[in-house]
Amino acid sequence: MKGAVESLAERVDGRTEGGLRGSNQSGMRAHNERLVLSLVRHEPMAKSDIARITGLSAQTVSVIMRSLEADGLLLRGEPIRGRIGQPSVPMHLNPEGAFFFGVKIGRRSVDLIRTDFLGRIVDHRHRTYPYPTHHAAVAFIGEALPQMIAAMPAPQRDRVAGLGIAMPFQMWNWAQYVGAPASEMAAWRDRDIQSEIAAICPFPVYVQNDATAACSAELVFGTGERPQNFIYFYIGYFVGGGVVINGQLYTGPTGNAGALGSMPVPGPDGAMRQLIQVASMASLERYLAQAGHASDTLWNTPPAWSVPDDIRDRWLDEVARGIAHASLSSTAVLETEAVLIDGWMPDDVRARLVDRTVQALDQLDFAGIDRPRVRPGTVGDHARALGAASIPLSQRYLVDPAAILKES
Asked: Average pLDDT for residues 220-227, to the nearest whole number?
C-alpha cells in the first residue's frame, strides 16, 4: 500500500525504508494514537496495514482504533472482502471528530475560518481595511469568533481543539509600505495579540508567521505529489515563503526562517532590491492606482480580479523574474528539488505566474546545480488561514516527526 503511507514516511525522515515505527509500551499510547491518526488522515486503512507499517502489535492497534472510534475521531468504512480470511475494515477520519479555527491577518484584510477534521472550511468571516491596526484585528476576532461558536451545534463546540493566528511578524515595521500612520501601527510592538485573544477564547491560541503558515498548509492539506525538499512562495500583499527540508517545515530559531521576501533580486530597472518590492501585490495595487483603476477587487474573497490585461501581464513578468532569481539563489544553498508558488489570486492568474516563472528560469545560468521544478501550490488563496488552523490540528492530533521511532 504505497501512496499516502510511504509519502508520510518520506515527509518525516526522507526515506521509505523502515517505515514509521510505533511503540508497544503503554506509556506511548498518546504517541501511537497520533501516529494512527496521521496515517489514516491520508487514506483509509485497516488495522492490519497499520500494524505492518508501524511495527505495533495487532492487539495494540485494535485497542487504539477502538479507542479512537469511541472518541468519535474515526469511522468505519465498508468491509473489503478478499478471497480468504475475515474481511478488512478500513477506518477513516470522522469529519466532525474535531474542529479548528484559523485567523489570517493580512495587510488589506483579515479572515477567520473554521475547518473540520479533514481541513475543509465549514464557516468563514472576512473583512477588509485600509491597513492592519492591532485594534481592527482584535475587534474583528472578538466579534466574529463568538458568532461562529454560537452557530455550531452544542456537541461540536466541545470538539474545537484550538485557534491559530497567521500574521506577519514585526508588523510595526511595515507602516510605510501599507500606507499606515506609524503611530497606529505601534500597538503591534507594545501589545500581545496571542494573550488578548486567549483571554476571550475558550480554547488554546497559537501564533505563526503568515507565510510559514501557508507553507504548513501545503504540507498538511496539500494534494498530489509532495517533494521532500522545496521552496515555497506565497504571493499576498507582500511575498513571503517557507523552506521544507526532508519533508519538514524549517522555521529556524525564531520562527522567521524562509523570509524569502527579504532576498535581494534584480528589479525591473536592473537595480538590486528586496523581493517584496518586485513580487508582491503591493506593486500591482500601485500600478492600478497609477492607471486610474480601483484595486478593491484584489482583496475580495474568493479572489476575483478586475485587472486590465496589460497591467496584469506587466506585473506577472516582474513577479516571475523576481521569483526565478530567488529560486536560483535558494537552490544553490539548499539544493531544493522544487519551487511551489501559491497566493491570494485567481487560479488562472496563478497558472500564468507558474508558466512565466518557468520561462524566467530559462534565462538564468544553473551551471553546477540542478534546476528545480516549478509547480503551483495546491491549497490556494486561503493557505494562510488554513495554515493557522493546522497549528492546533498538528499540536493535538498529528504525530510529531521528531518523536517518531525509526529503525536503526
From this structure: 85
